[in-house]
């Protein structure tokens, strides 16, 4: 039994007591009353702070700030969180492509299908591009894509191929001790990523740490910090020389 399961069981007496108290008060005041047929116990959210996934909150906030400052006329995203592209589309047009395109309809957002192992864009044609928390999955079959141990390298090569002179690439992957965790994801060291984009210049590097005192977004991070991470999150901005 997992610790979380054991904790949930210990909280059930409180749940039933609070249900009874709520039902009694609702009946007394004429408010809507719960029924036994419509219960959904949620027992792990009565905490002092609201928990959140630091990787996904911080890297999307990071990218939104980069785009806010750079204001590209046309931005293309490949595979990043739909929540990210939907929010960004409120203040700038964005084209979002995914191996499994989402059926979302919003003004400012165009959605299409694309495979990172063969992007449907001409060489050096995109002035602003993002691909965040995606490449580490390519070739592992997790999303129905074909198995390829070097699928991630092909994906990075494709992103580099389509970036225009002077163009920027916002790129995010897990960083730390390099390994493959099949079929979930891969984790990279700093040099693996920089070397994979050898034609591009690294303009900035920021890091979401996995520290014991809570994950933090470190701006202008020292790449040496990556060696201390087991499962950090590297946020890179690359630019192709004009």
CATH architecture designation of the largest domain: 3-Layer(aba) Sandwich
CATH topology of the largest domain: Rossmann fold
Domains, number: 2
In the CATH hierarchy, what is the class of the largest domain?
Alpha Beta
Full CATH superfamily name of the largest domain: Vaccinia Virus protein VP39
Spell out the helices and strands N to C: HHEHEEEHEEEHEEE
Oligomer: single chain
Tally the beta strands. 10
* End-to-end separation: 58 Å
Radius of gyration: 22 Å
What class, by secondary structure content?
Answer: alpha/beta
Q: Helical percent range?
A: 25-40%
Could you please describe the fold and organization of this structure?
- The chain is of the alpha/beta class.
- It has two domains: 3-38; 54-239, Vaccinia Virus protein VP39 (Rossmann fold, 3-Layer(aba) Sandwich), CATH 3.40.50.150.
- It is 29% helix and 24% strand.
- It is built from five helices and ten strands, in the order H-H-E-H-E-E-E-H-E-E-E-H-E-E-E.
- It has an eight-stranded mixed sheet.
- The longest helix is centred in the N-terminal third of the chain and has 27 residues, at 3-29.
- The chain is elongated, with a radius of gyration of 22 Å.
- It starts with a helix and ends with a strand.
- The relative contact order is 0.12.
- The mean pLDDT is 94.
Kindly list the characteristics that best describe this protein:
242 residues, 2 domains, elongated, eight-stranded mixed β-sheet, two-stranded antiparallel ribbon, 5 helices
